[in-house]
Amino acid sequence: MDDTIVAISTALGVGAISIVRLSGSEAIKIVNNVFVGKNLEKVGSHTINYGHIIDNNKIIDEVLISIMHGPKTFTREDIVEINCHGGITTTNKVLQILLNNGCRLAEPGEFTKRAFLNGRIDLLEAEGVMDLINSKTEQSRELALNQVGGKVSKLIHNLRQQLLEIIANIEVNIDYPEYEDIPELTIQHLNSQIENIKTQIEIIINESENGKIIKEGIKTSIIGRPNVGKSSILNKLIDEDKAIVTDIPGTTRDIVEGTLNINGLILNMIDTAGIRETKDIVESIGVKKSLDLIENSDLILYVLNNNESITDEDIEVISKLKDKNHIIIINKTDLPKQIDETQLLSKNIVYISTINNKGMDELKDKIKEIFNLEKIVTKDLTYLTNARSLSILKQALKSINDVEVGIKNEMYIDMIEIDIKNIWQKLGEITGDTYEDELIDQLFSQFCLGK
């Protein structure tokens, strides 16, 4: 990290301004060499300075330059931000001049990576930066902001501190048993402390499932036989003619996707091929995808026709839904009723008519009820949302269970301590207090350039 990096930090295109950002020990000196205006090496920190970027004594652009001295910056290094006139040609020209004068083009996420490596933020906060950039709803923005601000990190740091105190108490009792003023660590006391930590971890894991819904949305698949109105339902829900609607069975041969915003939470809607026996190769592939989505979806909307009897094929598919979040949609209620709902054995049934625009609000209400969306959006949004972090926390919970087994089996305390240290180490991987270089490189490579 001895070199000075540079990147365009705004989206390329026509606009009022664009920003070229530098970070590193030579950042101010390099910009000063191509700037006509005040001497940037003598101006105060966190100031904005007017002037021109030049190349071979030729004016390239009229700019405003922000000077920020480390360590009070995002990366804790000297940072310079050049506010250029927006436009691809001008911005790229300024970038090229800086590269020619000693900068290196930043890798994706390298500014945030330097902030982490220099102790400005931890890994959870870094992941929160990426989530904030990618947030699509107010709830996901708030969730990411809590992570950026360190609220989620405090949960993990608090758990690590509790474990550290237990480890210290164990070691003191082992090394200095003759000291009378040292609190004696009994098995009952240790078991109580471990149970308390286990409860906290379980709460974080359970609440983080809500965080996953807020961040990633609810993967929702619309499934059913051909011509039951799946595509019409998708179009009505997202208020867009996304899927082709005809009376011809097999019109939808592949999945069609759209998004629906309910209470600020995203439903990722997938319209699937109608489930039936078919000799058409393309359609049969679509049918297989439809069946596969049953296992991989957060919510299944199974559609039936009000004017048709339930088939054995319907019963077979519905039987696979009993342990999954699902809603049985009975469509075409504007037509004479032929269906027998008693065969469905489900309490989540909604009646709609896409022709008459009836029942769509009831469908949305049922989705909110199943996922308790009203409660999610009003709670304190302090959760883990990253799959990496959640996986590590679940590993830590498994190690907690190993500790409880050890206590129950009256294992030697120094053996139990090994498992407790392992938990402490794993929690450190979440925040980045302990990490591997390969992980860091992979994580920050997912960021955009300039961030």
How do you describe this structure in short?
By secondary structure, the chain is α/β, with parallel strands linked by helices.
Identify the notable features of this structure and list them briefly.
3 domains; 15 helices; alpha/beta; 6-stranded mixed beta sheet; Gyrase A, domain 2; 7-stranded mixed beta sheet; 13 strands; flat; Rossmann fold; 451 residues; Four Helix Bundle (Hemerythrin (Met), subunit A)
Structure characterization notes:
With 451 residues, this protein is of the alpha/beta class. It folds into three domains: 5-117, Probable tRNA modification gtpase trme, domain 1 (Gyrase A, domain 2); 139-213 and 386-432, Four Helix Bundle (Hemerythrin (Met), subunit A) (Up-down Bundle), CATH 1.20.120.430; 227-362, P-loop containing nucleotide triphosphate hydrolases (Rossmann fold, 3-Layer(aba) Sandwich). 46% of the residues lie in helices and 18% in strands. It has 15 helices and 13 strands. The chain has helices at 27-33, 88-100, 110-117, 123-134, 138-148, 151-175, 187-216, 230-238, 281-296, 312-319, 360-371, 373-378, 387-408, 413-431, 437-444; strands at residues 5-8, 17-23, 35-37, 47-55, 58-68, 79-85, 104-105, 218-224, 256-262, 265-271, 299-305, 326-331, 349-351. It has a seven-stranded mixed beta sheet with strand order 3-4-5-6-2-1-7, with helices on one face. It has a six-stranded mixed beta sheet with strand order 9-10-8-11-12-13, with helices on both faces. The two termini are 16 Å apart. The model is unreliable at 242-254 (pLDDT under 50).
